[in-house]
Amino acid sequence: MTMKFVQSLCFSVLTATMAVSCTQQPTHRSVDDPTVYVNPFIGNADNGHTYPGATRPFGMVQPSPVTGAVGWQYCAEYVNGDSTIWGFSQTHLSGTGCMDLGNVLVMPLTGERLREWDAYRSSFDKSSETASPGYYAVTLDDAGVRAELTATSRVAMHRYTYDNAENAAVLIDLQHGPTWNETQYHRQVLECESEWINDSTLIGHVVSSVWVKQSYWFALQFNRPVTSVDYLPMGENEKGQRIIAGFDLKPGEQLLMKVALSTVSSAGAMANMQAELPGWDFDAVTAEAHDEWRDLLRRVDMEGSDDEKTNLYTSLYHAYIQPNRISDADGRYRNAADSVVEATGGEFYSTFSLWDTYRAAHPLYTILNPERVDGFVNSLIEQSEVHGYIPLWALWGGDTECMVGNHGVPVIAEAYSKGFKGFDAERAYDAVKRTQTVPHGPKSPWDIYVKYGYFPTDLVEKESVSSTLETTYDDYAAADMARRLGKNEDAEMFAARADYYKNLFDSTTLFMRPRLSDGTWKDSFDPYGIGSKDHTGIDYTEGNAWQYTWHVQHDVPGLMSLFPDKDTFIARLDSVFTIELVTTASDVTGLIGQYAHGNEPSHHVAYLYTLAGRPDRTEELIREIFDTQYHPYPEGLCGNDDCGQMSAWYIFSAMGFYPVDPVSGKYIIGAPQMPRITINTPSGKDFTVIAENISDANKYVESVTLNGEVLDRNYLTHDEIINGGELHFVMTDTPKKSQL
Asked: Are 63 and 259 in contact (CB under 8 A)?
C-alpha cells in the first residue's frame, strides 16, 4: 500500500465520516464546504430507496454497492441493514418505487474458483463503509479486498486493494439487474454480447427489459493485463454472460477499473472514457467529483444546527442526482426509435419522474440550476417527437408509461412562463398540444374525457378520479402556455378543460369521487380506500379520496367555492390531519392522519391553509412535518425520495415558501425552518431568507418583509427570488390568523 494511497484513503474516510456522523451541537457558521454535511446513507433504509454510491451531478453513471436485487425494497439495490454485498453495479435509480438499471455488476474475488455465480458475495462490517459526494468505500471481508468507487459523468472508476491476493479476480456479471421477482431476474436480459479487444479491455452490448426496454453499450478497462478468463455457466432462460477475469497480484497491490457507458455504441463508450477519464488517477477523479459537488451545493448557504445542515445539503444532493444526462460526450444518443441522433444543445436527459418532480424538484431547478432547464425541456420535446407525446416517466431514453396525467406538460409550460428561451417555444407547444389532444394509449382517451368532462369510472380501466384531477392541471398548464403564445382559441379550450375537476366533486360527501358515464356516482364509495401498487382496481393513484380531494393546484379559490363556505373548507382540511388512516400500502407513508407526506399528492396540502386565510395552521404543520418526517440517518425519509421530490419539498419549505402551482411562478408563503438561508443564484444576485427569533417555540410568523417593505400578500414571485434581495420573517410563539 503506497503512502499516497494511505493519505488519500484517510482524507476520503475523514470526509465521508464527517458527512455521515455529524455532531449534534448547534452552530451558526456559514458553510464553506457543504459536502461534509451530505450523508448519502440517508434514505437507504426502510422505503427511501436511495443508494450510497458515487455519482456526479445529473450524471449518467452511479457506481454503488448491491446488497439485493429481487423485490420492491431493492429498487436502489441497497438496504442499509443488510450485511452481504453482491457486487457493484454502475447505474441506479434514486428514491423510486419501481426498479431498473443496475447495469454491469462487478465484484472483486479471491480464493477458490467456484462455478456458481452467486457464490462470490461477501459479508462486510458496516463500520468499514463510508460515503461522501463522488466517493464510496467498503471492505469486503470474505474476499479480503478494500473496494472504492468514484465517477465522472459517464465513467465509473473502481479501485480494489487486495489484502488477500490469492487467485485475485473480478466477476463481471452482465445478467444482473434489479427485478420484481426471482423469475424475472433470470429473464430480463434479452441480448448480450461481449468481446475482449486486448488483454485489459472488454466491450459489449446488453439489451434488457424490466421497466423499460433498455439497450446499453459498455467499455470496461483494467490498468493491469488480464491473465485468465473464465465464463460461468448460464442458467435456464439466461442470456447475460458472467465472466471471471483473473490477475497476477501480490498482497497489498491495487487493481483499477474503468467502466464507461453509452446508448450509442461500444465505440461511443470508449470515446466517453477517452474524453472524461483517459488516465488512472483515482484520487484526482475523487477530488474532481468532490469539487464539482462542493461548488454546486454552495449555491445554498445556511445557518443552523448540524442536523439541519445534514438534512438540507443531503436533500440538495439527492435532488441533483437526476435527471440523468445520457447523451455521449459528442452529443449523440440513441432515441426511442432506435436511431442515433444529435441532441439539441448537445445534451439529452432522461430519468424524468414527472408525476413526482413537477411539483417541487423542477421548480427548484429553475432557481438553483437554470443552466440545466433548457436541456431538460429540449429532451422532453425531442422524445415527444419520437413517441408522439411527452413521456410520462422517461428512463434511458424510453418511456415507462408510469403514473397518470402527463406532467411533462407543466414542466415545459413552467419553463416558458419563467422566461427560459433556450428551446423553440412553438416546437414545445406543439408537443404540449399533441400530448393533450391526440390519444396515445389507454391513459389518454381524450374523446371520452372531453365528451363527459371527466374520466368515467366505468369507461376507463382504473384511477378515474386521479386521472381526471391530474389531467386538469396539465390542461391548465397548456392553457397558460397557449395564452402566452397568443393562441387564444387553444387557451380557451384548455382553460375550459382545466375546470373539469368540478365535475367530480360531490357536494353531499364533500369528496372528489368516481362518477359513471350516466352521471351518477359510483356505488360503494369508500373515501378511505387506497389505490396503490398493492391495492389496485379502484379510482385513486397511490392515495384515496381524503388526499385527492385537494388536488386542484391551479384553482384553489375554485376548489374552495365548491364547499358551503370557507369555514367548512378549513374544517375538512383539519380532518385530513386528524382522522387516522390505517393502511399497509407500501407507497402511502409518512402519515399525519390521512395526510401522507411519503407520497406526492399530499405535498401541497399544508399550504392550502395559507390560501384559505389560516397561515398559522400551515406554520404548525410545516414544523410537524419537519420534526417527524425527515431525519439525518438511514431511516430518515418517510417515503421514496422519488428522484428528489421529497428532498425538494424540504428545501423549499425550509426557506419558507412552496410552489403550490409551479406554472404560475408564485411561491406560497409558509414558515422558514432555519435562521438564515441564502440562495447564491448563478446570476450573482443572492436571495436571503432570515428567520428572526426562530426557535422550537417560535414556529409562527409574526411579520414578513421583502427588501425592507411589508409583504402584504401570501406569495413571492419567481422574479423576486432570482432578482435577489432579502425576505425577512419575524418569528413568534403566538399564532396569528390572517384573512389575506
From this structure: yes
Residue 197: which H helix or E strand, with range? strand 189-198
CA 612, 615, 616, 618 torsion-angle sign: positive
Q: What is the pLDDT of residues 578-628, one digit of tens each?
A: 999 888 777 789 999 999 999 999 999 999 999 999 999 999 999 999 999
Residues facing residue 26 across a β-bridge: 305
Residue with cell 421529497: 646
Nearest Cα residue to 268 out of 398, 103, 387, 154: 154
Bridge pairing between strands 398-399 and 122-123? unpaired
DSSP code of 504? G
Which residue(s) pair with 568 in the sheet? none
C-alpha radius of gyration, the chain, whole number: 26
End-to-end alpha carbon distance in the chain: 67
DSSP state of 730: E
pLDDT tens, position by position, 72-123: 999 999 999 999 999 999 999 999 999 999 999 999 999 998 888 899 999 9
Alpha-carbon gap, residue 731 to 673, rounded angstroms: 10
Contact yes or no for 531/512 (Cβ under 8 A): no
Picking from 431, 309, 334, the residue whose alpha carbon sits closest to that of residue 29 is: 309
**How open is the CA angle 404-408-409, to the nearest 5 degrees?**
95
Q: Decide the pairing of beta strands 595-596 and 591-592.
A: antiparallel
Among 570, 571, 550, 548, which Cα is nearest to 559's?
550
Distances (CA, A) of 192 to 62, 90, 176, 214, 396: 21, 17, 11, 12, 18
Phi, psi of 66 (to 5 degrees): -115, 120
The CATH architecture one would assign to domain 331-440 is: Up-down Bundle (1.20)
DSSP class of residue 521 equals: B
Sheet holding 676-679, edge to edge: 26-27, 300-305, 676-679, 687-692, 725-732, 700-706, 709-710
Q: Judging by DSSP bridges, how do beta strands 105-109 and 169-173 pair with one another?
A: antiparallel
Q: How many Cβ atoms from other residues are within 10 Å of residue 279's Cβ?
A: 10
pLDDT digit string (tens) for 415-471?
999 999 999 999 999 999 999 999 998 999 999 999 999 999 999 999 999 999 999
Length of the chain as a residue count: 740
Evaluate whether 277 touches 156 at the Cβ level (below 8 Å).
no
Q: What is the pTM of this model?
A: 0.94
Q: Where are the alpha helices (DSSP H) in 335-402?
A: 354-357, 361-368, 370-387
Phi, psi of 268 (to 5 degrees): -65, -40
- DSSP, collapsed to helix, strand or coil, labels residue 261 as strand
| Alpha carbon distance 450, 448 (integer Å) | 6
Residue 8: which pLDDT band, with cuts at 50, 70 and 90?
A: very low
- Please check whether residue 19 is in contact with residue 40, taking contact to mean a CB–CB distance below 8 angstroms: yes
**Would you call 292 helix, strand, or coil by DSSP?**
helix
The distance between the two most distant Cα atoms of the chain, rounded to a whole number of Å, is: 80
> CA 517 to CA 326: how far, in whole Å?
44
**Which residue type does 426 have?**
E
Angle, CA 623 vertex, CA 620 and CA 629 arms, to 5°: 130
Q: Where in the chain is CATH 2.70.98.10?
A: 3-297
Q: Which amino acid is at 694?
A: I
In whole angstroms, how far apart are CA 349 and each of 116, 330, 386, 397, 434?
38, 14, 15, 8, 21
Burial readout 45-77 (b: 16 or more C-beta within 10 A, e: otherwise): bbbbbbbbbbbbbbbbbbbbbbbbbeebbbbbb
Every domain range in the chain assigned CATH 1.20.1050.60:
331-440
The domain 3-297 is classified under which CATH number: 2.40.128.130, 2.70.98.10, 3.90.45.10, 2.160.10.10? 2.70.98.10
Beta-strand ranges (E) seen in 349-414 are 349-350, 394-395, 398-399
